[in-house]
Structure formats: C-alpha cells, structure tokens
Amino acid sequence: MILFWIIIGLTAGGLLAWLAGRWSKMWPRWISLGTLALHLLVLLWLWASTKPNLQTPIATASGNPWLLEISIPWIPQLGIQFHLALDGLSLILLLLINILGIMAVAASWRSIQARVGFFHFNLLWILAALTGVFLAVDLFLFYFFWEMMLVPLYFLIGIWGHENRIYATLKFFLFTQAGGLLMLLAILGLYVIHGQTTGVYTFDYQALLHTALSPGTAVLLMLGFFAAFAVKLPVVPVHTWLPDAHTEAPTAGSVDLAGLVLKVGAYGMMRFLIPLFPTASLNFAPIAMVLAVIGILYGALLAFAQTDLKRLVAYTSISHMGFVMLGIFAWNSLALQGAIMVMVAHGLSTGALFILVGDLYDRLGTRDLNQMGGLWETAPRMGRIGLILALASLGLPGLANFVGEFLVLLGSYQVNRPLTVLATLGFILASLYSLWMLQRIFTGPNKQERQMADTTPRELAIFTALIALLLLLGLYPRPVLDTTQTAVQNLQQFTTVTTTTTSASVSEVETRDWRLGIGDWRPETGERTTPAYPITPSLAHPITPSAQGGKPDDF
Amino acid sequence: MTFNELTVLLPFLILAITAVLTLLSIAFNRQHILAAGLTWIGLVFAGLTLLVETAVLPQQVTPLLIVDGLARFYLGLILAAALAVAVLAFNYLSKQAEQREEFYVLLLLATLGAMILVASSHFAAFFLGLELLSVSLVGLIAYLRARPFTLAAGFKYLVLAAVSVSFTLFGIALIYASQGTLAFAELDYAQLGADALSLTGLAFLIIGVGFKLALVPFHMWVPDVYDGAPAPVTAFVATVSKTAVFAFLLRFFNPISLQESPALLWAFALIAIASMFGGNWLALRERNVKRILAYSSIAHLGYLLVAFLASGAAAVAAATFYLTAYVITTLGAFGVVGLLSGPESDANGQADFHGLFWRRPWLAAVMTTALFSLAGIPLTAGFVGKFFVLAASVGALSWLLPLALVVSSAIGLYYYLNLIVTMFREPQTDQLAAAPAPTLSVTGSLVLAALLLLVVWFGVYPAPLLRMIQTAVAGLS
C-alpha cells in the first residue's frame, strides 16, 4: 500500500500547493518542500526496511523479483490491474526523483513569481507521474503514467518558459505523443497475441514476458516500444525536440526534464523493451549501439558548437544518454550497472548545471556565451562550483559520472570493441565542451566589466548537496551498485532462453544467459564464466540456434 | 397493447405528452422558466421510467419498436444528453430577446425522434424517427432567425437532409424490393450482403446514415451548420442525433458479419479512414473554435466506425463506451462555448478564448479537460474510450485501421494543443480592462461541473460503466 500512498501523497501535495497559491506565494513553496521531504523520509525508510542489497535473485527457488508489490483490480474486463512493484532499480530512480525534485523547488524559490501555486502543482504532478512510471508493472498503467507525465510538463514549459516556449513545448508534446501512440499499438499487439495464444487477456508485465511471438511480429512490436523510448532518451534522429525544450523551459523544468524524464526512456528499455522481446532486441542491439555511439559523438560535437549556454548543456545530455543506451544494449551486468550509475550521475550533475545556468541567467539576463567571460573574479564561489560540475560532466575520476561511464565502457568492450573505442572518444569530446564552456563563462577577460552577485546561501546549499552526492557516489558507489545488483540480475534472468536439445537417448535442458559476454566477471567470487556460445566482436548474429527438434529457440 | 408494452413505451409517451403540455403552456402563459421547467421535468421522468423496465426486456412493441438492453442504454444516454442541452439552452436563450419557449417543444420532438430511431426494429419506425429528428432539427438550427448566418445554416441543413433522406428512402425501397419485408428481424442477412439489389439498397442507406453521422464524403454541411447554429443546438446535433443513428447502425448491422461481406467492410473501412484523416486534416487550418470542434467530431465518428467494424460483443461495448465518453465531452465543450456567448453572436473566435484560464478559470478548466479527453490524454474518459476501441480493433481487423487511428490521433493533437495554449496565454490588457464577465448561471455551472466530474471519473474508474454497457449489449448478439 505504501507504493500507492507515495504517488497519492505527491498528487495531494500538488493540489494543496495549488490551493495555497491563492493566498500566498510562499505557502506553495513550503508545501512542496514539505511534501518532498516527507517523501524522502518514506523512501529512505523503504530502502532500509526492504534491504534491496540482500534480495534473492529469481534464479534461485525462493527469489521474488520485487521487494514490494501491490495489485488492485482496475478494469477486470480487460485484464488491467493497478499493479505497482518496487525493486532496487526503481528504488534508486525514485530517490533520484525526490532529490532532483527538492532541488528544482529550491532553485525556483525566487525566480518563479507568477502563478506560484499552479507551478508547484505541475511540478509535483510531474514527479507523481514519474513515480508511477518507475513503479508500474502493468503495461496499461505504465502507458497511463507515461502520458500523464506529459501534460504538466507541457504546462510548465508553456507558461513559465522563455521566449520561444510555445514552439518548444508543442514540439516536445507532439514528438513524445507520437512515439507513445506507437508504443500503445505495440502494447495492444502484445496483449492480443498473448490472449490469442494462451487464452488469458492481461496487461501484466510478468505474464506477458514469455509470450510466444513469431520473429517478424516480435521485431515490429519491439520497434513500436523502441519508438517511444528512443524519442524520450533521446536517440539521435528523433532528438530534435530536446534542445528546444531544455532551452525554453524554466530552470525547474529543465532540471526535471534532463534529470528525470530522459531516464524514463532508459528505464523503459531496461524494464520492458529487452525483457519482453529478447531475441528481437538482441538482433537489433548492434544497430542500437551504433545509434548510441552516434549520439555520444554527435551530441558532444554539437555541444561544443553552441553559443546558448542552456542549449550547450542540453546537447551534453544527448551525449551522456548515449552512454546509457550503449550500456543497456550491451546487456551484461557491468554495462547495465554502469548505465544505471550514469543515469544517476547525469541526473545529479546535469541538474546542477541547469541550476547554475539558471542562476547565471537570473543575474545576467542572458544565456549567450559571447556575452560572458571572466566572471570568476566577481563570483569566485560560482566559479568553483562551475569548475567541479564541468569536471563531473567530462568524467573526471572521483566523481560519479566517471564510475558510470567507465563501467559502461568496460561492459560494452566485451560485446563490441570497435564501438567501445569510438565511445571512448566521447570522453575526449566531453572534456572539450566542458572546459570550453567553463572557459567561456568564468575565465578570460571580463569584457563588459560585469559585476555579479555571488551565490546566495540557498544556492550554495543546493550545489553543496548535489556536489556532495556526486563525490560520494564517485568515491564510494557501492550503495547504488549493491541496491541495483539483484534487480539487474533479475532483468537478465528474464531474457534467459531455455532450449531443449534431444539427442538419441539423453535430453538435457540447457539454459543460456542472453549476452553474458566474454568472461562476465563476478567480483564477489572472482570467477569467470565462459559463455555457451562464441562471442565475435562484430555485428554478426552470435547466437546460433541449437539443434534438432525440441522447443523453438526463438519465440 | 399489453401492460408490459405500455411500460416499455412510457418514455416515449411521457416525452410526447410533455411536448404537448409545453405547447399548451406557451399558449396560456408564455414564460421561459415554465417551458424550460416542464421540459426538464418531462425528460427526467422519462429517464426514471427507464429504470423500471428491467424485468420485461427485451420487449417488442408492435412490429415497429423493440426495447432491449441496448435500446435502454441508448435511450438513457439520449435523455441525459437532451437534459443537459435543455439546461444549457435555458442559460443561452435567457440572453436572447426572441420568442424562446418554442425551442423546447422542438427540442422535445427531436429527442422523441432520436428515441424512436434507437428503438426501431422496422424500416417504417426508422424512417419516422429519422424524419422527426431531421425536421425538428431544421427548426432548431435556424432558431435565431435574426442572424443571417444561422438562417443560412438552417437552409443548408434542410436541403442536404432532404437529399440524404431521399437516398435513404430509395435504399429502403430497394431492400424491400429484394427482400419483401421491412422488419429487421425478417430480413435475410446472408442475402443482404450478397445480392446486387440489396447491396445497392444498403449503399444508399449508408449514404443517409453517413450524412447524419457526418462521415467523410457526406460531411460538407458540418462546419457551416455547426458554426451557424446556436451553441446548445450544435451540442444536440453533435451528440444526440449521432448517438441515435449510431444505435441504429449497431442494431441493423449486428447480424451481418462484416468480415464475411468484403464489399461492406471495404466501404465502411474507407469511410472510416477518410473521416479520421479528413476531419483532422481540415481542422488544422481552422481558427474558428466551433468549426474546429465540428471537424474534430467528424474524426471522432471515424474512430467510432473503426470499433464498429471490428464487430463482436467486445467491439460493440467499446464503441458504446467511446460514444458515451464522446457525448459527455462534446456537451462540455459546446456548453462552454454557449456559456461564453453573448446575445449577438456565439463565442467562436480565438479572441474569446485568449487567456481564458486567467479570466474565467472554471470555464477554461472544463474546456481544457474536454479538449484533453477529445485528444485522448489519460485521466479522461476519452483516453479510456480510445484505448478500448484500439484494444477491440487490434485483434479483429487488419493493422491498417488501428494504425490509421493512431496516426490521425497524433495529427489531431496539434489543434487541440493550440487551443489549450491560447487559453493559457497571458490575457491582453484590453480584455482585462473590459467590463467584467457576467457571473455564471448556477444551472449552467452545475451542468458543466457534472460533465467535468463524469469525464474524469470515467477516465480513472471506468469499470462500472463498462460493466453496465456489457450487460446492456449482451442481449444483442
């Protein structure tokens, strides 16, 4: 039940904030902060009480994929349930939602002065919908929250954004909705095929996991899901909504967008896309990884070329999320944990960067890099913060981003060497744009002789918290890695292919882990496992279907 | 006439008596509130008698009418929609100086025609209902005859309705020529879908039905009539008349398995795709709010046809749910337009909606919810309806139709979002300085509040309504 109350708590807080906005501008802010603080306490209590690092993986007999679960019948005629479930992955992402939510509220404390109640209502409802997305394990419910996420964000950008906000928010909504509708078709296709083959019509995630699909249908359905997640992630051809949306959004909107909404695409790929269609995703993985590397390099190059500071940071998001997708489609435990780590680190660091950009905009009135320069002397604290954030963004060891990106590269190296080498170039390009950005803002001559107020205590508190988290996770990532380890193992288990080979007299059941990789290294035992099939570091299809007769390898 | 038959006929009788009573009240004591009040009471009573009938269904009353579960649900929907229109019309007409009371008589007669259509089991009843509905609507559309555009709209509807009805009549005649009977129960449905004479008759019948439902090649009257008619009448045309004709469609085509008659399947599929794309495409260039809503209603009937094509009990339930959601939403949208309207002209321009959220937040909230429901955004009944329609059609039909539905929905989003954005823009200073808006009437606000609540309620918890619909349509096949 607690899962249900988490979502309801956020929505109720939003409504309360909206009502309070009629009387005062301060009340909505305090109500939002209070709601999120309470939410944080609940999440921390959940973390402590469910002990995700001690969760038994489902490969063993007593394993349950979920730490907590709740299922209420909703539309039984169609097999739809209000089914929420928590595992380590969701928990980490929920914590990220909460932290970035608090930072967003704090960052807009002074800058949002118009319709404050409605602003905080939208903010909290975005967080509520995101919580729903990360907890839903019924496909209809997932789609429901996915769509619900769009509307408050649409209002947030459209009402409190900058000059070109109407165009940006419309583009954002149309892109996301188009992808979402294709995903809806894929969900319905899966639902109908499952119902026709097994006689049970349901939208439940675990029930739909092993639907028997013909290869062609599996590819089409997988592409439907991929369309939606690719728009959100964003993957390079369909990324064009992101720079506009990030640039025109108010600071809190950008923090939410970059920090949280992009993660929804990655989470969807991990939770739904690959487990539901393992073979089709395996075949598609080389293409997806190529797209990811293109995203890394293209995003970085374009970031380097920007003169609008917010647009620059937006393009760095595309670059970082490329690492996430690379890790996801490599699909071994190193890469997956690395991807999760990148998600968390990127959320924290890019969120902080957007807040910094917002603070600069509030003081200078411009986001144009040509107008800035030499601001370190007038605002040294801000300069120091900018330096640390730039170093985080470029992946300096010691900060969380490095841990994530390194794990991703380590994991994907086992699967595809050329692409990994290209992706590593991303580090160099990241250094290029991060230091260039830092240089343009803070160092060099102060041409316009600007005097700028340094960070206020509130802003300093925000940045201290975020940088502290980045440092902590960069030096000691075990909390995150331990929490998500079993969840990642379970996800890999969901894609296990079971085949039966019959020889003359003996029949044996051989279980292969999809994409275990060359020598998947288990750090606890130090042992290496050899895969049941050879992995060639090429784009060729590595799995050969086993033998004669028996159950079909493919679904 | 047995007691059961009389019980089942009560809604019709009550409505007819109310019409006569209202006419008499105009003759003796012409008062707006009296005529409106009688209408409301009559509609409520007719609706209440529907609740009494459970045990005797299905009941054939003369060869002309049949009242079964499906008819009962649609009768309830029509009466509820007519009540909402009557209340909104009271508020709208209060601002007019014209003779206002005859409106209610025409409204009651049109509702009666719609009800006969829903319960018809014989072509004579079908035609009676259709004509009663059409002729009353002509009077309603052209009611504010001082406005030239309204008068033109009324004439347009008269001419085009007459043309389409003559096609319908010819179609009925051809079917009679090939089948020898006018009662639905006695038709040989296997032959109906195969024989050349019957197919031609069906084609003409579909022309008439397509006109009333505002489907694409027969949609040319829609923008002008919806724009010219007074807002409550537009609401009535967009909801009640379409509901009635669609109920007839469900009942008449139910025994024909559309999958086995490729000619019919193709005809309806092409009309559906053309309506979905045509309606959304034409709305993209529009600035007039009533015309945008008119074109979007064409698209929605296209979506509804996709569900109708899927056939089977699940699809009929999905189509009925979608229609219910559509009716509630459209009433809300046109209700807002009506409440915003002034005495000279309706509030159909962008200027009327600019910054509405900051000037009249309540009306803007209802309009926004209605537009989200039409667009198919979750938390609204429209989303659930669209989902049900897709779920019913994905398994049963080729991929083309659901894909077309999805693509045209995405196109349709654009103009809905534009309208919402207009409502949320900062109001221009001259609007704020203008005379403050008159306070909303209590009755109008109540109706809009009820509609808003229903849209959100059915979007979040649709199971009870779905159950009710499923029991209602269970007797159909």
Q: What does this protein structure show overall?
A:
With 555 residues, chain A is mainly α. In chain A, helix 8 runs parallel beside helix 11 and helix 12 runs antiparallel to helix 16. Chain A has helices at residues 2-20, 26-50, 88-107, 116-135, 139-160, 165-198, 205-208, 215-232, 241-248, 251-276, 278-304, 309-330, 333-364, 380-394, 400-413, 417-442, 457-475, 478-494, and strands spanning 68-75, 80-86, 497-502, 507-512, 520-522, 527-529. Chain A is built from 18 helices and 6 strands. Chain A is globular. In chain A, the strands form 3 sheets. Chain A has a two-stranded antiparallel ribbon with strand order 1-2. A two-stranded antiparallel sheet of chain A has the order 3-4. A two-stranded antiparallel ribbon of chain A has the order 5-6. Helix content of chain A is 66%, strand content 6%. Chain B is an all-alpha fold and 477 residues long. Chain B has a domain at 257-477. Helix content of chain B is 77%, strand content 1%. Chain B has 21 helices and 2 strands. In chain B, strands 1-2 form a two-stranded antiparallel ribbon. In chain B, strand 1 and strand 2 form a beta hairpin. In chain B, helix 1 (3-28) runs antiparallel to helix 4 (102-119), helix 9 crosses helix 12 and helix 16 runs antiparallel to helix 18 (400-424). The A-B interface holds A 74-78, 140, 143-145, 147-148, 150-151, 154-155, 158-159, 166, 169-170, 173-174, 177-178, 181-182, 184-185, 188-189, 191-192, 195-196 and B 372, 377-379, 383-384, 387-388, 390-391, 394-395, 402-403, 406-407, 409-410, 413-414, 417-418, 421, 424, 461-463, 466-467, 470.
